Amino acid sequence: MSGDLLERQLASLLDTRDWLTNAAQTVAFIRQQFADLNWVGFYLQRSERTLVLGPFQGLPACNPIPFDRGVCGRAARTRVTQRVDDVHAFPGHIACDVASRSELVVPIVVGDWLWGVLDIDSPRRQRFDAADQAAIENLCRRFVAASDLA
Ligand code: SME
Fold first, then answer.
1. Does the C-beta of 119 come closer than 6 Å to ligand 1?
2. Is the beta carbon of 61 within 6 A of some atom in ligand 1?
3. What is the residue extent of each domain of the chain?
4. pLDDT tens column, 15-50
5. In the CATH scheme, what architecture does the domain 3-146 have?
């Protein structure tokens, strides 16, 4: 499916300004639309430099994650999307689900505040390419535009 169609489909699902509802819908939509994923979820910065678990689909996950730990921490710290082809080769990777082999973490920045990150795991090595990254980043932008992020 084209990235544009995906974005329009997600936008039509996000019919409230409530970020919690929209976050749950976004996670479920990504899990449904992208093959070979074992975990999709948000981590939120609700206190300084710490990520706490938000809406997700997958196994129960690690919580909390300080900014100096893991792929999620690096995305939060650097505010740059992290695309990891093989998590076993990423020093400090936090293994919540031992099945995970590759990972994509997109920082979500609102104004100058790091609101949180969207974390996506796959059991397949090198699951995510540049086109997947761009598509997921665009879906994150739709989520931000549709939601009042407290
Ligand atoms: N692997 C992540 C931790 C979160 S789980 O994948 C759900 C990390 O290294 O930050």
1. yes
2. yes
3. 3-146
4. 999 999 999 999 999 999 999 999 999 999 999 999
5. 2-Layer Sandwich (3.30)
User: Rounded to the nearest whole angstrom, what is the distance from the C-alpha of residue 64 to the centroid of ligand 1?
Assistant: 10
18 vs 36: CA distance, rounded Å: 29
76 lines ligand 1 (CB under 6 A): no
pLDDT (tens digit, 9 = 90+) per residue, 84-103? 999 999 999 999 889 999 99
- Determine the distance from the C-alpha atom of residue 75 to the mean position of all C-alpha atoms in its chain, rounded to a whole number: 10
Contact 120 CB / ligand 1 (< 6 Å)? no
Contacts of 27 (CB under 8 A, 6+ apart): 40, 41, 42, 55, 56, 57
- Cα of 146 to ligand 1 centre, how many Å? 26
Distance CA 68, CA 14 (A): 32
Reference 40, options 87, 110, 100; nearest CA is 100
